[in-house]
Amino acid sequence: MAALLDVKNLKVHFHTRNGLVKAVDDVSFSVNAGETLAIVGESGSGKSVTCYSLLDLLPKPPAKIEGGTAMFDGEDLLTCDKDRMRHFRGNDIAMIFQDPMTSLNPNLTVGEQLIEPLIYHPDKARRQDRATAKLRAIELLNEVGIVNSERRFDSYPHEFSGGMRQRVMIAMALINEPRLLICDEPTTALDVTIQAQILDLIKQLQKSRDVAVIFISHDLGVVAGIADKVLVMCNGVAMESGDTDKIFYHTENDYTRRLLDAIPEGAKTMANRAQSENLVEVSNLRTWFKDFSGPKLNIVKAVEDASLTIKRGEILGLVGESGSGKSTLGRSILQLAPTTEGTVTFDGTQLTGMSPAKLVPWRRRMQMIFQDPYASLNPRMTVFETLAEPLLYHGIADKNTVTEQVQQLMDDVGLARGHMRKYPHEFSGGQRQRIAIGRAIATKPELIIADEPVSALDVTIQAQVLDLILELVERHNLTMLFISHDLSVVRYISDRVLVMHHGVLIEQGDTEHLWANPQQDYTKNLLKAIPLADPKSERARLSS
Amino acid sequence: MNSNSTIMAAEKGTSLWEDAWIKLSKNRLALVGLGLLIFLCVISLLTPWIAPYGYEKQDLLMGATPPSAEHWLGTDVFGRDMLTRIMWGGRVSLMVGFIATAVALAIGVVYGAVAGYVGGRVDAVMMRLVDILYALPFMIFIILLMVVFGRNLLLLFFAIGAVEWLTMARIVRGQVMSLRKQEFVEAAHSLGLSQWIIIRRHIIPNTLGPVIVYTTLTIPSVMLLEAFLSFLGLGIQPPQSSWGLLINYGVETMEEYPWLLIFPGIALSLTLFALNFLGDGLRDALDPRTAKD
Questions:
Q1: A284 touches chain B (CB under 8 A)
Q2: What per-residue confidence (pLDDT) applies to A294?
Q3: Is there a contact between A334 and B182 if contact means CB atoms under 8 Å apart?
Q4: Strand, coil or helix: B241
Q5: A194 vs chain B: nearest CA distance in angstroms?
Q6: Distance of CA B277 to the CA centre of its chain
């Protein structure tokens, strides 16, 4: 049987001002009906470009398809004209994008967007009237698991949560009964429990409709359960392709090996360094925000009655899904978010209620590492300026010693000294995060609050940065509150873990103990939803 | 990439401004703009010594004549040499353009940055004040100033600047509000930096792009505003002149004596082009994300 989609020797180049970039270099793959192909790779590997080029969605120029064929049901997608391409897009190939928050038009109801492809179908004979289209849309909304779909048909996107919006996107992709579904990181922006549900849904729909699926992801754990075949890409080149089991259990490729090894598993080897002394004590902390955006004043209770202690030398993990208030709690401890009630005590001194001026000497002793290394560095300051600022401001260095101290910091975080005069945009994500970490340890702090420091990074870089953090914790006797939504990462790095849900700390315990015996249902579900890079157990979980 | 200059730059530790200059000097269009502006400024400064005729020297018998060997750009209805008048007019126009814009820039950027950064009630009050000033007919405002302080060229410049800063303040405020929520500003907070240092080092430099572009748009609009005020008798008085005024008079006699409109028009357009090229070049040069070569 001929494959539904057969891509051979695809080459896509970008002709940019800074020279030629071979985004996709000689990549071949095929997908049959009812089959799932996962394309896995780190950022910049060309996995998305590959799929975008199939649907002619790349900006040309700078992109140019330099060669290859993509036979879809006997026709070449790369050479067909615009009308034919619209026909394919409308009828045969559908796409689901990463961010459900931006892929729906906020000014149209969900229903209106769903029926659009039906009532404005390019093929006049296949156009449907509004009433029929609506029935069909409601049916699909039911199928993707939206309750009350008749009423929800007239809701606007902002009335849906992230996971629900992704369900709507899936319904939209399926409305014309495509034969090929391309999913570009459809679960990356979602919480882990929601991710499990969406993966389940995609799997189910695929089985019931016999569509072919191309699933793009950076996360091997996510694709383990749903993929039949895997294609691993790196820098535009196909590194390895084959059956899922073969790739996961018997890979012959070094790069795939590295990807698999980089997935954090189990606990770190470093001993628990916690001392008996409490460095931070938080009691009955409340952080509420006033939200004026609605018609009525709405009080958002981001953190509700949180009490915790952080022992000196300890790495405390804080786990929660988006909106659980974990970042706000971290910022409240550092007095970066205004607290409403309760106290935060640092090394025996109460910080809550202190004036900003009085806080300055304390700020030196506690620092923060942020999630997004692209947003957390001033784009107009060089590495030197960024790292020198805290040193000079707090009088740790003077004009004569500052260069030397900045160089030491750069050595500390593993940046080459020659990069001192470069601007942030000249670095990769991992290197930027190293700069941000360097800035945080510049003042020789005792406490560091790391807010999702590795979640914006590729998995191999993530492993390096995690090891750097552990190394620095040991070398500089740091105490750390490590905030993350990624349970595997938290398990790897933390000595003790707190679980947060809807602003409330619901459970805590030593990491391995908590993993073995979670008490709360919420924690149990959270732990169960972690995708593992183990196809057999993942498949068992999805089918259950 | 010229590795030599890069290494030297790395050793010396170039600042944002030095980098900007290196990049600007590689942008030919921007250099042409800069050269043209400098040329115009020098001519204006030297006008009293190099102008071919006195600016008020009339020859009523001759009247308006087209360009000739004695009068390169022709003469106006009073027989005054156009080249001389454009040179003298340039002094006024360029001065208005630069001083009034500098005033607008200084007030607008600081005001907008403070409002956007502090936010909340302070921002609300500051912006309502801007709204009120917007609503106030600016002619009344300027006439009032003229009545209170007497007619004075320098005061006129400040009055125009005091009107033009409103839009600048709004632009800067919007920029600052989005910058304020960026993580690098929060990082600066957690380092314990003072508010003023955060505004100066982390906020204002990141608003430069739109500010520069708007500045290059403000200068010509200020020049035309001056012409309008002068036309109403609130600005400079004949026989003194400015480009805006010359253009105004030129429009009236456009059909009989087109050169009275064309030449001052060219002078103003050249300045405009020069400013735009330079503005675009500066915006790119001050953005470290654009390549150095």
A1: no
A2: 64
A3: no
A4: coil
A5: 27
A6: 13
Q: Which residues pair with A447 in a beta bridge?
A: A366, A479
Q: Does B186 touch chain A (CB under 8 A)?
A: yes
Q: A363 to chain B nearest CA, in Å?
A: 5
Mean pLDDT, contiguous 10-residue spans, chain B (293 residues): 36 61 84 91 86 72 75 76 86 87 90 88 91 82 77 77 87 90 88 86 86 85 80 74 83 84 87 87 80 51
Pairs of CB atoms within 8 A across A/B: 81
Task: Enumerate long-range contacts of A102-110, CB under 8 Å, 24 or more apart.
Answer: A103/A165, A103/A169, A104/A157, A104/A165, A104/A168, A104/A169, A105/A157, A106/A156, A106/A157, A106/A158, A107/A156, A108/A156, A109/A153, A109/A154, A109/A155, A109/A156, A110/A152, A110/A153, A110/A154, A110/A155, A110/A156, A110/A157, A110/A160, A110/A168
- Partner-chain residue, chosen from A380, A390, A420, that has the shortest CB–CB distance to B16: A380
User: Cα separations (Å) of A301 from A284, A328, A333?
Assistant: 13, 10, 16
The answer to whether A317 faces chain B, any CB pair under 8 Å, is: no
B187 touches chain A (CB under 8 A): yes
How much is the pLDDT for A437?
93
- The chain-wide mean pLDDT, for chain B, equals 81
Query: CA–CA separation, A396 vs A390, rounded Å?
Result: 8
Cβ neighbors of B75 (< 8 A, separation 6 or more) are B59, B62, B63, B64, B65, B81, B82
Alpha carbon distances (Å) from B57 to A302, B78, B82, B93: 77, 9, 11, 21
Question: Residue A16: what residue type?
Answer: T
Q: How far apart are CA A68 and CA A78, in angstroms?
A: 8
pLDDT the model gives residue B133 = 85
Which among B9, B184, B206 is the nearest to A376, CB-wise? B184
Query: What pLDDT shows up at residue A1?
Result: 55
Nearest residue to A346 via CA among A317, A393, A308: A308
Both structure tokens of A261: 């090894």
**Structural fold of domain B38-45+78-285:** MetI-like fold (1.10.3720)
Distance in angstroms (rounded) separating the CA atoms of residues A48 and B6 = 35
Question: Do the chains contact at A368 and B197, CB–CB below 8 Å?
Answer: no
d(CA A221, CA A264): 11
Mean pLDDT computed over every residue of chain A: 86
Residue A208 CA to residue A190 CA, distance in Å, equals 24
Q: What's the whole-number mean pLDDT along residues A183-211?
A: 83
Contacts of A379 in chain B (CB under 8 A): 206, 288-289
- Kindly state the tokens that stand for B190: 């957690």
- State both tokens at A355: 């004036």
- Answer whether A289 touches B (CB < 8 Å): no
Strand order in the sheet with A75-76: A19-31, A5-16, A63-72, A75-76
A486 within 8 A of A516, measured Cβ to Cβ = no
What distance in Å separates residue A422's CA from the closest CA in chain B? 8
Quick check: B173 and B125 in contact, CB under 8 A?
no
Distance CA(A447)–CA(B211), nearest Å, equals 39
User: Which among B18, B183, B203 is the top mutation candidate for probing chain A, defined by the most A β-carbons within 10 Å of its own β-carbon?
Assistant: B183
Tell me, what's the pLDDT at A177?
83
Residue A25 exposure: Cα atoms within 13 Å on the Cβ side: 13
* Partner-chain contact A372 B183, CB within 8 Å: yes
Q: Which chain B residue is nearest to residue A391, measuring alpha carbons?
A: B191
CA-CA distances (angstroms) from residue A486 to A301, A322, B64? 23, 11, 82
Dist. CA A68–CA A144, nearest whole Å:
36
Residue-range domains of chain A with CATH: 1-92+179-262 (3.40.50.300), 102-177 (no CATH), 278-365+445-543 (3.40.50.300), 379-442 (no CATH)
pLDDT at site B36: 92
Residues 6+ apart with CB under 8 A from A141: A114, A149, A152, A153, A167, A168, A171
Indicate whether A139 pLDDT > 90: no
